[in-house]
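Hi everyone,

Forwarding the result from last night's run.
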Amino acid sequence: MLRLDPFLEAPDADRVLTVLRRLNDCGLDYAVTGGMALESSLGLELGRRRPFNDIDLVVSGFDSLPSTLASRFLISHSHPKRPTGKLAIQLVEPEQRVRIDVFSACGATMERARLATIGDLSIRTVAVEDLACRIASEMMCFSRGDSVPPKCADDHARARRIVDKNLVEQAWQDHRREIDPPSYAEAVEQIGEALERRTGGLVKSVYSTDTETVCPHCHDSDSLRVTPSKVILSVLGYC
């Protein structure tokens, strides 16, 4: 049983359950990733309550997205040509005003995902080893002098404490960039040194409200067409 109440306010937990149920009704084959999956994996000892911003999911690829999504959700981004691991589609549930970021899975992420239930709903969650590797790969950008959200450093520090050392090394091969270290253990060491030296920046993300910006990755398909930015802005307050 996956409990959301220790990590989300009760109204937000209800919104998540409602949105996931609608995704299931559409026939989407997904695994929950991101902060919601991480906090539940960390448990009561290391997990903590965090603000609810969106729902993060992974799927096998853009081609696995069912056309029924277009009848239940707004589509703020549709990226059929982006590489593995990148955003495949961004949905918005208009009634609950929830954004859903859907990424294409790296390597065997979907095979390593674990079955869980939220209430009466059956779902899958991404394994903590995959979560840790995804976070560590982002923190490697920090070690090279780039800026990342502050939560990344905190999430990395907690996730690395509970991973299986053998499984995380397997997962690392699916998530690492070519310029990342060959092992997760080496990445952890380099990240620690970078944090001590403050090599990169920790900068909170800022959402855009510019409805004139054109996404270079967005492409309509016959069944999945991007919703105008002004509509997305009216629902979420950003686009």
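The CA atoms of residues 143 and 193 lie 8 Å apart.

Cheers,
N.
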